[in-house]
Specification:
Keywords: 4Fe-4S, Cytoplasm, Iron, Iron-sulfur, Metal-binding, Methyltransferase, rRNA processing, S-adenosyl-L-methionine, Transferase. It is found in: Cytoplasm. Residues 269-496 form the Radical SAM core domain. The protein is an alpha/beta fold. 31% of the residues lie in helices and 18% in strands. Strand 17, helix 11 and strand 18 (383-387) form a beta-alpha-beta unit. Helix 9 runs parallel beside helix 10 (339-350), helix 11 (370-379) packs parallel to helix 13 (408-419) and helix 14 (441-450) packs parallel to helix 15.
């Protein structure tokens, strides 16, 4: 959309002065009488005006004029400089809209003029449909004028929403945006792109990880004021922190609607520390060995709510554990069921100027949602973990109902096809060992056949009992025997024992006690004797 701008420079009782052209915008010339009234001709062809000068010279002229007016009171002038920028509305867009809607908006604009504060002045939506920016300050400077021109050029005539679909009348959540969205939002409010980068670093870099407006250091006064009025920084509130006997921490967060999610911080060997983040409140997958699945799905977490889990973990434990080195999306919920927010949150985490995690150390886990899995492999450069947990469709249909829609052959064939076109890190297959269900040596041999042709590692995970579970954990000796079969076949295998289970912080134990609403599925007859 092409927008036309007219600039008027006035001092009451003086004649308008021509200031040439600045930043690509045409500046009009007009006359003014003692009362400040002026005449203007919006239809004048600017190219035919004889006093039009080159940009560099006109910028110099404008700068000199502003300097001259700084001490207007001392020189006996009657008012400071006043700038007005008029934006002619785009009539072509009105024709494309329905007549009824156009008329409704036109009447609304006439009856309710909008006024937006801009620090040095105000923006008005005039009765004609044009914008007018008035700067009443003798100290107004060139860079602020350029910001104002840029903001008006980007502002749609009838915009009801702002960045990321947030209503313009409500505060935006800064951590919902990636950097490109944050940059657009900052510029739409009349500030430079460089200030967007400074804000980005306050949120995610420089060991600041700001969670309140008071922690936004290094930003100028006007920029901070705009953020205070229009943006929110904090999405989560720490409700409690529980410490397990092995040093694992479980953080309980409260959401705005009163829901509670859990995040686990796991100190590892060799100076590594992992944070296990949640992506949903509850889970819709109903895996039979997982307590979160018994809750059912309550809601998806937003991008900000996911990212802040990692930020809080860093802030709380940096002095004790050092920097958080790994992020795993293995907390509450199925990450790929909330794929839009998960991919966006992961991108913020691996951004060089953001939280700056290595992509290979940010792992997204899935139970096997094939369409979302394809999208993840094509759009994200983070690592992938697939929760397998069975070697036959019969068993997996029972313990992981998602298999009834996307069975083992479909899931594994998708991985083979997608991974051959784009280089990825090795897939991590997670295998929860359930005594008498999926831990036989025949299961180990079938697992070897299933993963052939897929660059992978295998995690053997000890089952962690919880209230209402029917399964028993496989003894450690049998887990080692199972692992040896895989290793002899050339598989890369890790044996993962329980961490944080005495505080219900281990794999499959997350969720509020007594909050199980989804009933267990009927077990196949051949496994009845293996259950509690």
């Amino acid at each position: 959309m092409k927008l036309h701008y007219l600039l008027y420079f006035t001092r009451t009782g003086y004649t308008y002065k021509n200031l040439g052209e600045i930043d690509g915008f045409a500046l009009h010339r007009s006359d003014c009488d003692q009362n400040g009234d002026h005449e203007r001709d919006e239809e004048t062809d600017l190219k035919t005006i004889p006093w039009r000068r080159t940009r560099s010279r006109s910028v110099q002229n404008l700068r000199k004029k502003i300097v001259k007016l700084k001490n207007w009171k001392e020189r006996g002038e009657r008012c400071p400089c006043l700038y007005r920028i008029f934006q002619k509305p785009e009539r072509r867009l009105e024709k494309e809209e329905s007549g009824e809607e156009t008329e409704r908006r036109r009447i609304e604009e006439k009856l309710t003029p909008k006024k937006i504060s801009r620090g040095y002045g105000s923006t008005f939506l005039m009765r004609s449909g044009a914008f007018s920016l008035s700067l009443h300050s003798c100290t107004s400077h060139l860079s602020f004028l350029q910001r104002s021109f840029s903001a008006l050029r980007r502002r749609p005539l009838r915009s009801s929403t702002s960045v990321s679909g947030v209503c313009a009348d409500s505060k935006v959540m800064l951590k919902e945006m990636d950097f490109s969205e944050l940059d657009k939002w900052v510029q739409s409010n009349g500030f430079r792109s460089g200030q967007a980068m400074m804000l980005w670093k306050c949120l995610y870099g420089n060991n600041t990880w700001a969670l309140s407006h008071d922690e936004l250091e290094g930003l100028n006064k006007d920029f901070r004021k705009m953020i205070d009025e229009n943006a929110s920084l904090k999405a989560l509130t720490v409700k409690d922190v529980l410490k397990a006997s092995d040093g694992t921490r479980k953080i309980l967060f409260s959401l705005e609607d009163g829901s509670v999610i859990e995040t686990v911080v796991i100190p590892c060997d060799r100076g590594r520390t992992a944070v296990c983040v949640s992506s949903q409140v509850g889970c819709a997958m109903n895996c039979q060995f997982c307590y979160t699945g018994r809750m059912g799905l309550r809601k998806h977490l937003s991008t900000a709510e996911i990212v802040e889990q990692a930020i809080h973990a860093r802030r709380l434990f940096i002095s004790e554990f050092g920097s958080i080195t790994n992020v795993v999306f293995m907390g509450m919920g199925e990450p790929l069921h909330n794929i839009d927010n998960v991919i966006k949150a992961a991108a913020i985490m691996v951004d060089d100027k953001g939280l700056h995690f290595s992509p290979r150390k940010v792992t997204i886990s899935t139970s096997g949602l094939v369409p979302q899995l394809k999208r993840f492999l094509r759009e994200s450069n983070c690592a992938l973990a697939v929760s397998l947990n069975a070697t036959t469709d019969e068993v997996r249909n029972w313990i992981m109902p998602v298999n009834r829609k996307y069975n083992l052959s479909v899931l594994l064939q998708t991985l083979r096809e997608e991974l051959q076109f784009k280089h990825k890190y090795k897939v991590l297959f997670e295998y929860v060992m359930l005594a008498g269900v999926n831990d036989s040596l025949d299961d180990a041999k079938r697992l070897i056949q299933l993963v052939q042709g897929i660059p992978c590692k295998i995690n053997l995970i000890s089952f962690n009992p919880h209230k209402g579970s029917l399964f028993k954990p496989t003894p450690e000796e049998k887990m080692i025997e199972f692992r040896n079969v895989l290793v002899e076949a050339g598989c890369v295998v890790f044996l993962r024992l329980s961490r944080g289970d005495d505080q219900m912080a281990a794999c499959g134990q997350l969720g509020e006690p007594g909050d199980s609403r989804v009933p267990l599925l009927r077990a196949p007859q051949q496994f009845q004797t293996a259950l509690l």
